[in-house]
Amino acid sequence: MITKNNLMLFFLMHIFSFAFASGYEIPEIYPTNWWIGMKNPKLQLMLHAGDIADDNITINYPGVKLVKVNKVENKNYVFLDLIINAEAKPGKIKIHFEGEGGDGDILYELKPRRKGNGSQYAKGITSADLIYLMIPDRFSNGDVSNDKFADMHDTSCNRNDPFLRHGGDLQGIINHLDYFNEIGATALWLTPVVENDQSLTNENGTMRSAYHGYAFTNQYKIDKRFGGNDAYKKMIDTAHAKGLKVIQDAVYNHVGDKHFLFVDQPSKDFFNQWSLFTGTSYRDEPLIDSYASKSDRDIAEKGWFTSFLPDLNQRNPYVANYLIQYAIWAVEEFGIDGWRVDTYFYSDKDFLNKINQALYNEFPSITIFGETTMHSVTEQAYYMQNNINTKWKSNLQGVIDFQWENSVLDALKGKFDSANRMEHVYDVLVQDILYKDPMRNELLLDNHDQDRFFSVIGEDFDKYKMGIVLLLTQRGIPQLYYGTEILMKNFKDPTDAEVRKDFPGGWKEDSINKFISSGRTEKENAAFDYVKRLSLFRKNSSALQSGKTTQFLPLKGVYVYFRYDAKQTVMVIFNTNDNETTLMANRFSEITNGFSKTKNIITGNISSLGDFKLAPKESVVLELMK
Ligand SMILES: [Ca+2]
Ligand SMILES: [Ca+2]
Description:
CATH superfamily of the largest domain: Glycosidases
Largest sheet: 8 strands, parallel
CATH topology of the largest domain: TIM Barrel
Shape: globular
Number of strands: 28
Strand content: 15-25%
CATH class of the largest domain: Alpha Beta
Distance between the termini: 78 Å
Radius of gyration: 26 Å
Bound molecules: calcium ion
CATH architecture of the largest domain: Alpha-Beta Barrel
């Protein structure tokens, strides 16, 4: 497979899929490199090249042992089981091949581990953070030279088409790191930046690109339209230097149909195969229901997300190893802090626990949260660490708390016709008894798959403030979707492209720049300043970051709760009435005893603690003072 003539080309090993005119090729190897000193000494290398299974493969490197060469149905793959002992030193492992075409060597790099596990990277995202979520293609174009490439399946880039790429990239994010600091964000979550070298797909008659990033074609490459691996490293290093953590968006459930593992499948059971195309039912219930039929379970879990997103079979141990090692590789290679898992419940449950545990083992401080679009709090709790007595137990720390979000939207949307709308929120907190640690849930008002918050609440600024207050003062990890702070609006009508518009000012040809106050309208500045004031207060508030909660039953349209610890007590009040309301202070004496004054976090006004006069639809955040 590898001739002696090719030896001189081995230094090109970082260029994978390097095919030779003679028909010989250097195999692709995944993971593309590894480290000494990992907790788990085992490493499984996937080698991919024509008829590689016919070669005799040996390894000679002190401290590294080739335990087994595994062959699968497809002779273009072998899987090497290695043990890397503690005494192995950083360097390049020589992998020796002998085959019909001759023999040769490949050098495979073992690096020293990145410094600062848990302190400089893999820090974990906690309730002290504020996450800012963005779609890199739609946020800012920092490098017009990478907008499109003739050698990719999709060669288009057109900002006038909502379904095509718009050219946003990692440099665009680097250019706005100060903006994230200004708004008080402490963690960046980018929808996936992994290579999506997909063709345009015809969806309901329109040609669509994979600008969203959820159709991976090679996990080990950051898409060059975002700037490639180097730009990702630069973005993460510069973000870290500005006190911003980085969350990577992971997908285990599927890959794009142009992924090399689907185009040239190692074995048929790498994917969940159906004789006729079968899409998932998008229903979580059969995966939880103890009465569910096997066919309902199979369709939910093994049905494909779409016809061009083949469904990975994580029960296949090679698939599981591939995904687990990639997750570890990405955190160590790039210095990721938090891990978000897309389409969480669509993957095999035991695999999910296994990959979570593998990440926890290597990175004790990392945190993982899953996308779990469920129908109830119970179902949502089932997929994370919980207090429910079931046979299968999830080890996932937290989920995206869509149930909390639903309660907030139920409280705020429509007319304030019933007095106690905030009961929705009160009730959802009551059910926190099901979670091991509800502080690890991610809170949101909207995201890239949903109608924008400001539209959902009828563009009512009082309700907007209520939503922002709930987001930034309730238990959990708040997440802001890009543009919510400047009142970006729209429903997913006719499609989700409407809620994924370009951030105004992110492209140099934009006539309006909403990254700066002079580019924003008065109302947009009012929203921006409101978010900023509260998030900056939260940034130094131990009570809001990690304090206990005491809530009082919503009465006469007023909802009150406190966040507090030994150092600080914060009182939050919502008046959902259309008229001015007086709130008697004595009901809250169990918390307020010992305090004499209040400081309004938004206005800075200090008042003596007494009955509260609330304006119609007012939200109040007060710090109690002695
Ligand atoms: Ca670009
Ligand atoms: Ca699946």
